[in-house]
Amino acid sequence: MLTKLSLGCEQLIGLFLFATDNYCLAPFNIKPFEIRMIETALNIKTIKAKIYNSSFLGLFCAGNSKKLLISDVITADELQDLKNQLKTIEIGLFKSKNNIIGNLVIVNDNGLVIDSSLEKAEIQTIEKFFEMTALVLFPKKDILLGSEIVATNKVCFVSRNFNKDERARIEKHLKVPVFEVSVNFGQTALHSGIVANSSGLVVGNQTSAPELTTLYQIEQNYK
């Protein structure tokens, strides 16, 4: 299912939400009707959380249906609250000066793609946690890899800033078809405008009709 959503007046929903096939993390100030829209579109339960006393859950998380890696800026109480609610999910902490892990790491149940800006030891730490060998990509200048990719266990969306060879490598590594799209009226920052899992998509409220048509057709073809 495909749904348009803004959180309050904010269309950059991916900064505040983090979804897998099993759950969606959402900020405490989310409204009941927003929760209903998310849960209907993605067919999962919404869990309220905060990280670093903030609502930017999408920036500080990377994960798949089995594991969740969180920036170590999370407080002990916030972490324990998540563990209490995600009892079947293995949760790990990631320590780095680049703490916006959501913009640096893309992972589904099949594969792992990491931004080359991370140090070798950090990449190895992530590989060990997810038990996968990563594809390390060198994005264009001033682009964070994960900010322009959204991957599920069925499809992967990338921005126009990835060339044909890069798209092919991502497709081979994540083992899902890759599609070039935009969101929120031409934005390439897909991670901030699309929240997705194998059941559906939630996109920012400024997503145009042509963008919605493209996303809907892809979603319908790969249910």
Automatic annotation (TrEMBL):
InterPro entries: eIF6. The keyword Protein biosynthesis applies. SMART domains: eIF6. Pfam families: eIF-6 (PF01912). Gene3D superfamilies: L-arginine/glycine Amidinotransferase, Chain A. Transmembrane segments: none annotated. Keywords: Initiation factor, Protein biosynthesis. It comes from the Archaea. One of its GO terms (biological process) is cytosolic ribosome assembly. One of its GO terms (molecular function) is translation initiation factor activity. This is Translation initiation factor 6. It comes from Huberarchaeum crystalense.
